[in-house]
Write a structure and sequence with these properties.
Elements lengths: L6 E6 L3 H10 L5 E7 L17 E2 L3 H4 L6 E4 L7 H10 L3 E4 L2 H17 L4 E2 L2 H4 L5 H5 L6 E8 L2 H13 L3 H11 L7 H4 L2 H15 L9 E2 L7 H9 L2 E11 L5 E11 L11 E9 L2 E8 L3 H18 L26 E11 L4 H11 L4 E9 L4 E8 L2 E2 H12 L4 E10 L2
Helix pairs in contact: 1-12, 3-4, 4-10, 7-8, 13-14
Length: 425
């Protein structure tokens, strides 16, 4: 940092994260918040001794202010965030952002522009909240070839699944409770349908696999189809159900990147990540398997990462080209495989007519599609003379599995296919 010179920042957004940033920065007198852009200047803020004279309602006043060194963006979304940050970069300002959607959709042109204008963009808070993951991958883990990422990147869905598993209740019941407690939004689509996790894994996979991943080619499936029965059956089979963001390299160096529920073996560390906690597991050489866990959202955990990025930039200013190791170096666009090409183990729950030979018939159907069964669990007979049958397969190609499921749906002894969930290796 330039000696005896305060670094001036402009903050765009004063919601939960923005408020946390202001509160934390009071402990760093070398940083001055010059302006804060908000939607409503007159709104009462839960920030002690806030200087309301620095509030403005036009964020372009911040990105065009020649005295501001660092623009901190915590409003989310791509519009107007992208235009604001492009303007800031062209004006020679460094960027700190917590905006996972912006990075996933507009990261490539934004990082290219930053390089052309000799400024830094840091975004630790955009991936796993308070968990440091981007800087470790770029620095201390830089000597590794990361082959796989398995992560829980959304606290809302993890909270819902944890409560469903512990209390044996439905998704709908837990979602209502999560909304009342403030863990889930009034419109929870971004979380429960996997969009949030997909944005995060797009950027994380790009960095860790060293290939640029296209958000539009990431398979995404949420948790809305998970039932209390699925939770119970998984438990009996030695698993927990989690929403997993997965990214790995195939043997021919293609990228397999997706977000969907998975049965996680109880022996795996991710099975023990409960509530709103997030976790990232990296598998690479030579380090092996590394797991990081902690708060993935919230006022102070996210502010921790944002302020950390501010200080990194501030303390490198005046020393030539800032933070070259944090620049985007991804010249290769990943060749991403479709979900149909993936190979997985599967959990399949079906309701079948209670008739002799039905389990054998299931085995024959799967066999015709080159799928071997690892285990079969049959539950009690109900008053309609049907039984719940739960199957765990061996590894098989998704396209083969889908063909088998289509045949099951046309079999007169199969009342319905209740669910299909992939199983973690």
């Amino acid at each position: 940092m330039v000696e005896n010179k305060k670094i001036k920042i402009g903050l765009i957004g004063l919601g939960t994260v923005g408020s946390g940033v202001v509160k934390v920065l009071t402990g760093f007198p070398e940083i001055e918040i010059k302006k804060i852009a908000v939607k409503n200047i007159n709104k009462k803020r839960n920030i002690e001794n806030l200087d309301t004279s620095i509030l403005c309602d036009n964020p372009f006043d911040i990105v065009n202010d020649p005295e501001i060194d660092i623009v901190v963006e915590v409003i989310g979304g791509t519009d107007p965030a992208y235009e604001l940050l492009v303007t800031a970069v062209k004006n020679g300002k460094h960027i700190v952002t917590a905006n996972k959607e912006l990075l996933a959709k507009k990261g490539e042109p934004l990082f290219k522009l930053a390089k052309e204008n000799n400024v830094s963009i840091l975004y630790e808070a955009a991936i796993a909240g308070g968990i440091p993951i981007i800087m470790p991958i770029k620095t201390t883990l830089a000597g590794n070839k990361i082959n796989k990422i398995e992560a829980i990147l959304n606290g809302t869905t993890n909270y819902i699944l944890t409560k469903m598993e512990k209390d044996g209740v439905s998704y709908e019941q837990v979602l209502k409770e999560a909304q009342e407690l403030g863990y889930a939004e009034t419109d929870p689509t971004g979380d429960v349908e996997g969009y949030d996790s997909a944005y995060k894994i797009a950027t994380l996979a790009t960095i860790a696999l060293n290939q640029r991943v296209d958000i539009n080619k990431i398979y995404r499936e949420g948790i809305t189809k998970i039932s209390a029965n699925d939770m119970q059956f998984a438990k009996e089979l030695g698993y927990k159900i989690k929403l997993i963001a997965l990214a790995k390299l195939t043997e021919d160096n293609k990228a397999d990147v997706r977000v969907h529920p998975m049965l996680v073996p109880l022996k795996e560390g991710l099975a023990s990540i409960n509530g709103v906690t997030n976790s990232v597991v990296l598998d690479g050489f030579p380090v092996g398997r590394v797991m990081m866990a902690g708060p993935g959202a919230g006022e102070f955990p996210t502010a921790s990462s944002v302020v950390g990025d501010i200080l990194i930039i501030a303390r490198s200013m005046g020393s030539g080209r800032p933070l070259p190791m944090m620049e985007c170096h991804h010249e290769v666009t990943a060749q991403q495989i479709s979900i149909e090409e993936t190979v997985n183990k599967y959990y399949i729950s079906v309701t079948a007519v209670n008739t002799p030979g039905v389990i054998g018939a299931l085995g024959e159907i799967f066999g015709r599609h080159n799928i071997s069964l690892a285990s079969v669990l049959q539950k009690g007979i109900d008053k309609e003379n049907t039984a719940q049958i739960v199957i765990i397969t061996e590894f098989s190609k998704e396209s083969n599995l889908n063909s088998a499921i289509n045949e099951l749906k046309n079999n007169p002894n199969i009342v319905r296919v209740n669910n299909l969930i992939r199983v973690m290796e």
